[in-house]
Amino acid sequence: MSRLCVICKEERASVKRPKTGEKLCRNCFYHIFETEVHCTITDNKLFKSGDRVAIAASGGKDSTVLAHVMKTLNDRYDYGLDLFLLSVDEGITGYRDDSLETVKRNQQQYNLPLKIVSYSELYGWTMDEIVKEVGLKNNCTFCGVFRRQALDRGAVMLNIDHIVTGHNADDIAETVLMNILRGDIARLERCTEICTTGDGRIRRSKPFKYAYEKEIVMYAYFKKLDYFSTECVYSPNSYRGHARAFLKDLEAIRPSAIIDIIYSGEAFQIKQDVKLPTQGAESWIAERKIHGEMPENIATMLHFDQLQIEEGSRKNESDKDKKREEGEEKGEKNEW
Amino acid sequence: MCNIEEPILVKEQATLSTGKKCIKCKVANATILIRYSTYCKSCFQHVFVGKFRKNLEKSRVTHSGSDEKAMVALSGGPSSRCLLQLLRDYCEPLPHEISKKSIFNEVKICHVDESVAIFDDQEKEKENSTLHKVELIARKYNYEFIGLRLEEIFSPEYTSIGFYDNVIEVTFDDSKRTQAKELLSRIYTQSSLSNREKLKSLLGAISSLTSKEELLWHFKLCLLMQMAHVIILRPMKDMLSKEIGIYNRFTGLVDDIVVTPTLTSMMPAKSSIEKLTEDFIVGLEKDYPSTVSTIARTGAKLKPSNLINLEWSCAVCMMPYKEGIKNWQSRITVHMKQSPLPSQSPFASPSQKSTPMDYHNSSCQCASNGSCCAANNISDQQYNHHKQLQRPNLEISDTLCYACLVNMRDIKSIVEFPPYVAEAIVQKIQKATNATVTISPTRLKSKFFATAELYSHKSLKTDYVGIPDKISNLRPIKYYIPENESPQDIEWRLHRERVDQLNHQFWTINNKLFIDEKQEYEDQIKLKTGRKPTPAEMSIFYKDFLDKAYDRQMAYNKQWWKENIGMLVPGGKAAIRNFRIWMPKRLRTRISFFEKNASS
Predict the structure, then answer these.
(1) Which domains does chain A have, with CATH numbers?
(2) Which ipTM score applies to this complex?
């Protein structure tokens, strides 16, 4: 026997909600999912009217749903935001080139302006070339660092106030767990923050902080959104993989576990007398404007620099290229 | 998190045949590998004991010299067994170490026997009881031994005033109210329910092992806290279970351990969160050998967020917690179709936040999320429904921390919690409402429902019929309770109360709907025509309303007929009983059964 939706009590229930196990009809599911994101946005006062907001779009499920929901909410509640799609082309053949096609289609579907910034433009290296040099180990770490920076640069080009990313509740709970397991207290404190400010004035936030990955997938599936789903061809972070598997098991035992972990992450803070690792590298970071100022990132960056020095001639060339391209981009800024 | 109480099997250490030297004395051949370091036997023991003493001294709270008392919580497992030995060695130094002064002048041992929670039948419980085995261990030491059983948590002495024995009724959503009444009748009729049975029925009502484990842990801690009233020290917190296992082996303690089965013994890893986490950490430690110590150190660097009010503590686990959990949850997990106000500027007005909160104040029902997210309608609902709405209404969820609230979702029926929980809730209500709930020792023997105004049935001399309810139009009846009320009488009274409640509920909802819809209809007409609707127009609405309400009304009628027929036999019996008791004395003061039915 089919049951009625627990919310409207009119339609037949066709969805079992992963977060609570409630049986809902599709329309109520959409409505509730969107309302929760809306609550997250308004409770945390993420935006103000007139903000220029870039949606970091990878073509994957999270960012596609984010683009859809942001557009819907912006229209429904009259946020008064200027929305843009901002993509980063890491230059990974067989992964990013395909997903960028999806982003381009999304641009048409949602009628939002799109900007793509590529690693090769910004740094003179594609991810494929980097992997060729450094091997598969650790490549995710600095691909991440590069992407952050690339997003910021793209945002500056578009004169953006705010970048929203598709990080979901699963990602955040995973990060909390991982930072506890690794003893990374500096990040542990920051990773539950919904809104962070990078260098300069650009704010970054995660409107999907409390949205379950499963629900995002369901939303995309039922709404028949156009998204691209493949893992990155380069090996995923294995330590995160452990945390991810553990989190999925926890969720199977108790569906609220993900939210519970985020709640815990918000309920503690670092004792005042604990020294955060600094490594005396602040000045260096400030100069280079590298985000994610954690020691391991710095180490990777140094390592990467070292590689570039070894390839001296090539580095010089790419540096010049980079500067030239940057100049051009600044000129191009208002074109599209 | 990681349960280090599990027994460890230590393989013969001879396998470490790489010829490495001990990193400490650098002379003897190493036999033990801890993380990345190799030790010989004597150096290992020295380091281990040293670590223990350092931890203990670091965590000293007062520096008043050697006049503190200590209690060892001894489960009998490897860790606590080892702790006891280390503490003894520490407090009674060997002659050549006499210069070291001890910080404790008295040590007690306390054991909580949990077998009641783990085994189903009494035979097995006795067979596997750990109390005597642990007592045997404790006798080897010259310390006082306190043996407790977990079910004693239901005794009134384990409360902060030491004799709290009241039962408070915490009503859940309406569908559960009849169940609550049944529980009440059980408490009345079988007040002889033993502590053991109470604990069993409580655990039986919890659907997940995780919540069971957590609740047991809180109860155990509460028992220990009541015995000791102190700060808890965990001097072994950064010792690996492997280290403890090896130490126990070297000192011959390994044969002197009581293996305590837990709820998840012999269960797969995914049976509870605790078990899964243990499994995960142990697995991770294999690949990343410093995981356990990293987690312990990370934990030591954290403290509760500034937003947490340290004065409020959870009624169940006694830990401080953040207020406004319910509101937080309602924003993140939406359960109903609310339309967040489409105000001009969604980011400016904080007033918007009040939307979900109003919901709880306006209605005593709550979002149907499990059994326990309930309004704390502590008094007899049907009699002071109105007062209830006006009084600051403390929700039960406001007395629990987030984790306990999550656990409560797994409780599927109405259960009795230990008195210390009830005490904590009543104290909170007092604080929040400034109501004078007096806990008088004279009432100790009779269990009753503590209400915010101590509204007790016992004060009535005869049945009371109140003024009609403003919404349901029904007159509430408060039934007289004779001194020596028999079980049948209790059942009969509860039955009538339940039926009254049913009527009251239906008519409240029905009349509310009617009033609202009528208002709406009148407004519509007014908008269209600019005058009040004529009787002819109103009749359209009446017909329409009745048509719409047909199913609801019919269901209620059927229920009401059923109840009426069902009440015939017990009502007849009651009438006969009353006739026998009262007629000869010609003192009939009660309204008869038939008159009463007519009035409702």
Answers:
(1) 26-269 (3.40.50.620)
(2) 0.73
